[in-house]
Amino acid sequence: MDMDMEDLDADDANQPLSALLSELQLLVSVSGGAASSSDPPPLSDSLLSGLYSHLSTSTGPSSLVSRLASVDLSLSSLLRHLSSSIDSTSVKPSLLASFAYLSLLLSPSAPLVSLFSPLHFLSILRSLRRSLKNQATSSPDSTKQKPKSKAHSKSKSSSKIEQNRQPGDTSNFIVKVLGLISDLLTRIQLESYNDTRKSLIDTISEIMGSSHYQALSNSCFRILRIIISESGHGDRGEATVEILRSLAPLMLLSIKSPVRVGVIGFIGREIVPLGNEDEGVKKSLLFLPRFLANKAPEKAEPRACAVETILEITKVFNGEELLDFVDYVVKLAKGKPKLRLLAVDLILGLLNISKESDSGNSWRVVCLKALVERCSDTVAGIRARALGNIAQVFGEMSERREEIGMEGFSDMVRRRCSDEKAAVRKAALVLVTKAMGLIGTVDASLLGVLGSACSDPLVSIRKAALLAISEVFRRFVDVNVTHEWLQAVPPLIVDNETSIRDECENLFLELVLNRICQFTDPRPSGSFASSDPLFSESLLHLLKGVSDGEVAPFIKKICTSLGKKKKLKPFVATSLQNIITASNLMRHAPEGAWWLLAEVSLYTPQAVDWGFLSHHWKLLGDAGRKEKVCGDDGEMETVLWARDRVSLLNTISNVSMELPSEPAAELAHSLLSRIEQFNMHLSEVDAHIKSLRTLCKRKAKTPEEGNGLVLKWSENLVSKATETLNLYLSEVSETKKQSDFATPQSGSRTKGLKTKSPSVSAPDIMQQAVTAVFTVGSIVIVCPTVDLQGLIPLLHTIITSESNNEPRLRKLSATTVSFKVVAPSLYVQSWATMAKICIADDKTAKRYIPLFVQELERSDLAALRNNIMVAMADFCVRYTALVDGYIPRITKSLRDPCEVVRRQTFILLSRLLQRDYVKWRGVMFLRFLLSLVDDSEKITHLADFLFSTILKAKAPLLAYNSFIEAIYVLNGYQAQSFSDPANELFAIKGMDERSKLKRMHIYVALLKQMAPEHLLATSAKLCAEILAAACDGLLNIDNATGQAVLQDALQILACKEMRIQANSTSDTAEMDEEPVADGPGAATSAAALALKGRIITQVAKKNLIQMAIPIFIELKRLLESQNSPLTGCLMDCLLSLLKDYKNEIDEILVADKQLQKELLYDMKKYEEAAKAAAKGNKGKNVVEERCKSVLRDVNQCKATPPLSAMSLPKVKGHLTGQSGGAGPSRPASVLDSVRRKQSFESDEES
């Protein structure tokens, strides 16, 4: 019974196999037998599924092979049917057939060697690749379509479920197939099938790069390990090369990619140990970094991944191997731009590796030198990258400067800090910050560059420059560094960028105030040795620089900001008091100490001791003043005393709330008494009045009481000032009358007699009158309501005395005195006080503003012109409509002979323009242009910043709209539309080289502000409004002015700034040296910019052909008919314009064949000269000589080369009617006609 049951179970188990065999037998019989079928049909899906189920068991392959013979079927015929199924386009059947094929092939009873076919194996590999591609393309499509109906929705959802299930099933099938392949590799040898091995390796790498890496990685790495470890699969070195080449794209994936990590780990685990045993594997591994370097992409992030991979591989190299790779990288740094950029990053990584290793530093020095060389690369991105990499490694290199050989390193850094590319400038400034130890001493030129960078238009450059120059100041505290830091950093407190202002405050706190707080008195208790320096030189220079007139306003803003943020500590004021107290035995306190204490005390009043102030108030009184004046430098000591006293008064005003009542009242009475005497230095008057007002208002019980006290003593002072001024005027008038009506002495009787002169009659009274007038001006500021009716007529008499002294008016008044001659200081101060009165009283302003404008134009006193310019700026703010009509006359001060007046005018008008009190209309813009080429370097620096930063943001189209008019005005061309006589003052006339360079500098500055589309429009306007005007006779080119206008237009069209580049970007975008991300947004933006560039380029070419060239041809004929020297300039312009269209000249110049030949010939000469310069066969002079055109050589009466040596142009013989021939045999008349053809200037003359 048991035997029957076992037989029954066996029959049940064999039933599926019997069914498969029956189906196979039927398929073979239908196809006509195995022998007769050349292309056997594939198996059905159901049959393949049955085979898969049966062969998945442990005994399935053996049982199937053994049963095939019983049904008269051969294993080879079944394998051919399976191979047809493997080639199926359906993924699942193909994988099932591959699994069945390999399972039967690996059956113990199957003849593996005789049945294995490389073609069928390649079909299996194709099936694997096809399954991956089909899966990658099918899954996204299933999510894009939406169901249109419920039934359709159900079908779609079911198909989606099937597709979602399919990837997992496919992965399982692929894993099983790969497992069978690895088993197959252990039983067969691919040594004779190199193509099969290469295809297998490529398929494995493709599988590893798919989305199934996690599930398939172990099987893939096992296959690769078998290929290189088993001896029967060919040469190990060749196999390793194929594997590494196939895996190279996977090594260049993202750093965090698991595929890349797995591949690098496989190389370290499997290939590196084999390299120690096999020389071929070792050689392949050594060349892998070089192969990856050549395959590295250009974009930033992929390139960084490539560098990281290369460096990880080189970590396993020994010293000699690493040195060979370093030599390769150094050579790479001299190759193509892409390779140079990669080499710069590789050098940085290699230097970091050298820190971790104990190997020598000989190759480290070589790498550093190569990196420094790349800092002067022709590509800006490489320069910036090299500088940035140097900044990362040079922090620890200060002690090895001699070994590296960086003698010219400082010069290189200075050049890069002023590089034309923003990214390079920023990298160089960062290098200065991080590598001061290697740079060593900082010369004046580098300091100047760092200071200039602090006013760069780009925010990031200003930040980097701020940190760089501060790092220099932190390390070096000599006079030059201190001066440059104070000139560059404190002005940044008014920067528009908040982060720059904050950094400026922090650096001032650290580098200035903290250093002052470190002062300690070096003297022992109570003793002082004259040989011991009390203050260090750095401290003295720092305090003096802080109070400098140009820096002081910015220091005041910094102290104000720090005080409001409560960052000013009382210890600062205490330290300054200690410094002043320690200097009691000196002639005066260190210059700037009192001034800085006055600024700090406003926010730390409790830290200032009243006893200290009282003591120094007495010390700086009249007795102290007389003692100090007795010195050799009495005048200088008086000025320093006055400055200290002003700062002391400001300090007292700041701490007035902390003063006791009685000392405050005594101090106020003392101040008022000193003011009433009108004998103080002018710099003290304002401080006395402001201190007196502060004391009155702060010590009064109510604001009304304080205002009443201020008004009371203000009217008292004005009354006394009026009496003093009236007394002086009466005395001057009386003296003038006596000198006019006295009988003149003649002959020898006048010898030895002194004529009484009003200028020396009463110097003390005159000085009192000057002080009284100045005092009234200060009073008007603190108390605008004071009554001045008695003083205004006296001031009117003084300021109009110069007008009344004209010959026509002198007859009407015999007693008229010119105070400009008699008392120039009183004359200047009267104008200043009248300006302050006009600010306070609008009725007075309406009467006197015309007088101010008139005096500004005709005065020969620079100080008075400067004061009036400041007053006019205040008037423009207060009475904008009233002053607007005088703006053209005010702008004439931009051409003032005095540099101070020009700079003051430029600064004041620039501020008014930024605040919209004055508009960029009329002549304002054209007159500002000359500041770009001013003789003063300070003014040109300010003008560059105004035009490149402020104006570009505020009025971006102004340069484009006014460009043509600027050409006419700068040349002084007088036409109906440009006939303003005042423009003559703002013209740079002349054809000399200096004038042309100045005008060209202005044109280039304007062109740099234009966008590509504006450059295109400007080019069209130049052709239409200047070149065409010359052709039509509207522009007179018979005189020098018209010729200068035409020559400027031609040079502008030929300059490199006028060239329209497809990838033109703004300066701000230039900072993005490399895109941060490569997402769809970045790709869309880049595509849009590229499209815009192509459109602009096409339009430029169209305008050149349709508009410019016909005008050039007509203008050339006109200039040739007049024998004009501008023909050479025209030819140069044409050469520059057509240089980019060399292959299209025939199409462009179809209307003038002769011009076409001449241009082609000139271009050939230029190319030959360029080649000669590149080869270095001849010197610079020879190259310049060869660059000259043939027509210019003719003009210089040089011998014409033989016609046989010329390719173009060919002169046709008029006798023989043939071209060419020997030169000497030509008739002389032909050559003479060529020589006389045109007259051109030489390169030196043009």
UniProtKB/TrEMBL annotation:
Compositional bias annotation for Basic residues: 145-157
Organism this protein belongs to: Rhynchospora tenuis
Organism lineage string: Eukaryota, Viridiplantae, Streptophyta, Embryophyta, Tracheophyta
Biased composition, class Polar residues, residue ranges: 740-749
Keyword Nucleus (UniProt): yes
Zinc-finger keyword on record: no
Protein name: Condensin complex subunit 1 C-terminal domain-containing protein
Compartmental location: Nucleus
Region (Disordered): 134-167, 738-759, 1204-1246
Cellular component aspect of the GO annotation: condensed chromosome, centromeric region; condensin complex; nucleus
UniProt record, GO biological process: cell division; meiotic chromosome condensation; mitotic chromosome condensation
Domain Condensin complex subunit 1 C-terminal: 864-1015
N-terminal signal peptide: none
Chief subcellular location: nucleus
One Gene Ontology molecular-function label: histone binding
InterPro entries: ARM-like, ARM-type_fold, CND1/NCAPD3, Cnd1_C
Superkingdom: Eukaryota
Alphabetized UniProt keyword annotations: Cell cycle, Cell division, DNA condensation, Mitosis, Nucleus
Family matches, as Gene3D superfamilies: Leucine-rich Repeat Variant (1.25.10.10)
